[in-house]
Structure formats: structure tokens, C-alpha cells
Amino acid sequence: MTQLDRLSVYHWLNAWCIKPVGGALVRQEPEYILLALMGSPLKKIMLCSSEKEIFSVEEQVMVQHSVIINNMIEDGSYNHEESKIPLDCVDSKTLKKVIDYCTHHTHHHNDNQEDLEAWDAQFLNVDSNGLYDLLMAANYLEIRNLLDLIYGTIKNMIKGKKIDEIRRIFNIKDHGFTPEEEEQNRKEYPHFY
Amino acid sequence: MEGFHHHHSSITSPFSYTFAITGTAATTSTFNTTPWMNSRIWSKLPQRLIDRILAFLPPPAFFRARSVCKRWYALLFSNSFLELYLQVSPRRHWFIFFNHKISKSYIYKNNNNGATGTASNHNNDGYLFDPYDMAWYRISFTLVPSGFSPASSSSGLLCWVSDEAGPKTILLCNPIIGSLTQLPPTPRPRLFPSIGLTVTPTCIDVTVAGDDMISPYAVKNLTSESFHIDGGGFYSIWGTTSSLPRLCSLESGRMVYAEGKFYCMNCSPFSVMAFDITSNAWFKIQAPMRRFLRSPSLLECKGKLLLIAAVEKSKLNVPKSLRVWTLQSCGTMWVESERMPQQLYVQFAELEGGNGFECVGHGEFIVIIIRGTDKALLFDISRKRWQWIPPCPYRRHHHHGFVDELHGFAYEPRLATPVTGLLDHLTLPFQNFNA
User: Fold this and answer.
1) Which domain holds residue B403?
2) Which residues of B touch A184 (CB under 8 A)?
3) What does the pLDDT read at residue B21?
4) Between chains, do A160 and B70 touch, taking CB under 8 Å as contact?
5) Contact across the interface for A128 and B39, Cβ inside 8 Å
6) What is the CATH number of domain A44-158?
7) pLDDT digits 0-9 by tens, B327-371
């Protein structure tokens, strides 16, 4: 359900005086149960980038994806009225992307596999800098599915590369093998050189 | 963690294998596979994160990456890396194929003086197939002694069973790291029993069924024996026996595991034999359209049991086709879930010419091998895509063009299979009894 849908439902519920009570609802239609299980529909949290820009995002969305944020909210260190979560190692551009990813995957988790994969591919259509920053942000926030996606992409980039090329990319100047050992490696994997 | 072989001092691997990508490998990845990677950015990556990238690599690429530097080379022996690997590496629904040689080795067993020269190791070559990239690799199983044949597979381990009639010895092998673990031999003598294997990170279950040798020359399907060991300390070393239903004719070979049960095809008339591991009980399930099936095989997909077979209904106006049925949750009813597109079936039937076909499934993939040819089809259940598989470049071809039959298993190559550590303390007392 999009944010707009849920807002409409929320107003509809209020108008007809059907209130969520202790997580349960009076009527038993599936959308309403979903609403109740998700808690208050529009509870938001504030994330603050390294550039001191504030992003408001549904608590629901971030709690589902980021282990770090989930822990912060669970242990009560985040106060909804006043706090914002400072993310000093994530810049605004990257934070916006991360929020985008989490929001899409929360709202579209029932989509079919191919559509989600296509969206992910489009999402990761960024330059090296962007990919690196996303990796660092996802790692810091501990967003497992985004991490898997990024590592999957990087491993595809590495998979076909020659040994020398990999050394260049990771700036490995001293590989540590003796010439005999390198020769042995070459013999073991003759098709790779 | 147990089960790892430490070879810090030497670069030589304990086993030999060759990985090579065929020229016709199709890339199905939607990402650019060889983009320029800026070293100014990627060299900043902390070691932990580099390790994580390496943990994501499929085994052939991982072994290539080991040649990059000594630190990467040693990761295979690093417990912390392997723990990370077991946590993050994605599921890979690959396959491994062997040249079908069971009948040959039975004939030759008297001629085999036990010497394992390099010539005989040819028989133990496995052909690893990656359905995502349509790529073939070759793995040699030089550690497996002669007189054994591949029988089943689960979670990165391959199960080999002794060919000779009598109590059966079972070996669990991880060819990627060259580990071989022996199970205590089965108490009852058998000829060619069906073997079921299921392995989880904390538990190993093996069931050996049928072909009981009630005398040196009489074979009957009477019983099954099961082996269980788990990390919680529970074990049953072939102590669990069960009776097979009367008059069943198990198809010798591997049993398929799905949701706590082993399944096996039963011939004439076709039905499915099921073994519930926990309750140690066998029962029969009727096969769908059982009088009109040809070359039925059982597969597992997403935890459900599937049956795939050619359907020939000569009396009615039903077009011949290849269909897939799914066993429903009730455990007795089948629902048709897939059918080969008719045009493709015409092509397929022409190539197959009534010789039959063999199927093996892993995850969302089904491989259909046409007997007597090197042609095979790949079906992706989730994307509903049928593709012809490029022929394996490593297979030997006889002079008159006849190709050895390929015998396939669902196999996921894994850098570590620590669960075999559970068996280490079991096997020692039994080694003394081996002739």
C-alpha cells in the first residue's frame, strides 16, 4: 500500500469510528489487519546526514531494513518527539538512495521476483563512487538485503577479471608468492592466465 | 571448527581440478560484467569488506581469486573467513554430472586389483554445471577410491556408495576442499539399494533402502536402514530399520528429499514410495496419470515434491507432452503445475526418439537429459524459461559417436561443510574392521 492509500484508509477508519484497539480492529478485512499489525501508519523518524540534512521517513520502513536503527528504537534511545538519528558517515545523496531502497522494498515486497530484480538493477545503475558509498552506508546501517544486492553486483564485476586486473583494482602491490609458487598457481589453473 | 585441512606450509592443493569456462557460456546477468573499476575507490575498502566480496564469489571464481595474493590464498583455511562465508554466501543451485558407470564397475569388480592408477581416475571426473551462467567446469574426485559410485547429494556434500554386493560403505565427499568422510558400513548386505541423503548445518540423515540380499543370489526389496547424527548429541548408527511395503520395486538410485521425507519412484505401475524419516515409516503415493507416464522422475523445488514425466495417451485426443506435477500439502494429491510448450516438445521428442530421458532438479532449475545424446534442456521454474544447455566440453566421445550417459545430481559447491565434523569421532573405531 502506498503512503497515500494508507492515509486514506486511516481517515476512513477515523470517519467511521473504527479504531485500532490494542493492535486489533473491530472489522476483519485484510487491509485493516495489515494496518493494525504495522502499528500507527504514519509514525516517522528523522535521519540526519553527514551534511546535517534531515530526512523524515516512516519508522516502519527503516525498522524493517536496518538492524542498527531497529536496535536504537527498540532500546528506547530514540525519542520520537525530539530526536533525530545522526548518521555522520552517510552523505545526503547516499542517505536518500538508502531510504529510497528501503521504502520501495517495504511497499512492494509482494511484487513478483522479476519486477523487484528489475527495480534493483535500475537502483544500482550508479557510478563506482556511488556504489562504494552505498556499500559503506548499507554496511554501517546493517541492511542485509541491500548488502547482499551490492555484494552480488561487485562480485559480478570481479568474477570475470584476470588476476593482474584484480591486483590493480585493490592496489595489491606485493602478492607474497615466490616465482615458484606463482608458477604452481599457473599450472593449477591454466585457463585463467 | 572441525573438518578443515590445514596446508599452510605448501601451495600444492590436496586435490586437482580444472575450471574452465566454455566459449559459449551465456551471460544472464543484467549487470555489466566487466566494467572498469577505479582502484582509487576500491583500494580503500577495508579488509573485512573485501573478505565479504570474496565470500560471495562462486567457487570457480574464488579459487581463481586465491592466486591474487597470499592473504587471499589463505582465506580458505581461515576459520573466521569460513564462518563469514557460511553466513553470507548465496544459495547456488548448481548440478554435477557423472558418466554413468554402475553396471561397468559391477562387471569389472573381479578384475579390479584395487590399484588406483591415474587411468582409472578418469571415471571419477565430475562435470559441474552452473545454470545461471550456463557454464561447465570439471572436478576430479581423485580421493574417492575405485569401487565406489556417486549415489546422492545434499548441501555441498556428495555421497558415494560401494559398488560391491554386501554391507554398503558410504563416503561423504566435499570435492571443493578435498574432504572425505566414511560412514560405518550398513549391517545388512545389499546389491544396489536406493540411497537418500539430507544434510543441514547441524545434522546428517542417510537412508539405504531395498535390494536386500537374502542369499548370495537372491535379492528382494524388504527393508531400509537409517543413519542419523546431529549436533544435539542424538545419533542412530544404522540402528533404525523399517520394512518396505510389499511388492515394491524401487528404482535403484537416489532418493529425493522434501519436507522431512525421502521419495523414490516405484515402477510398474508407477507410484511414489515415501519414507517419513521421523516416524521411520514407508508408504505409497499414487502417481498422477500413472498408466500414461514415460520416464518419470522425482524432483524437489522450494521444499515441494515434483514429478516430471512424458505423457502419452494414445487413445484420446490428448497431445503428447512433458508435464510437471506438484504434490499438494495433503501428501496424496497431485496438481499439474508446468507443461513443456508444444513446439518445444515436438523438437524434444524428435531428439529423444523414445530412448527416454533423465531429470534432476535443484532449486528453481530442472535439467532434462536426453539419453544417448549430449543434449539437455534447462527449465527455470520461476522465470518459466526453457533453454538448451551447451554441451559439456569435457566429456569423452567414443569413436562411433555414442556418448556415455550422464547421471546428474543437485549439487551446491561449498567451500566448507563443517557438519562432517560430527562424523569424525564416529569413524575411528570402525576403521579397524575394514578389510
Assistant:
1) 94-100+123-426
2) 11-12
3) 39
4) no
5) no
6) 3.30.710.10
7) 999 989 999 999 999 899 989 988 888 888 999 999 999 999 998
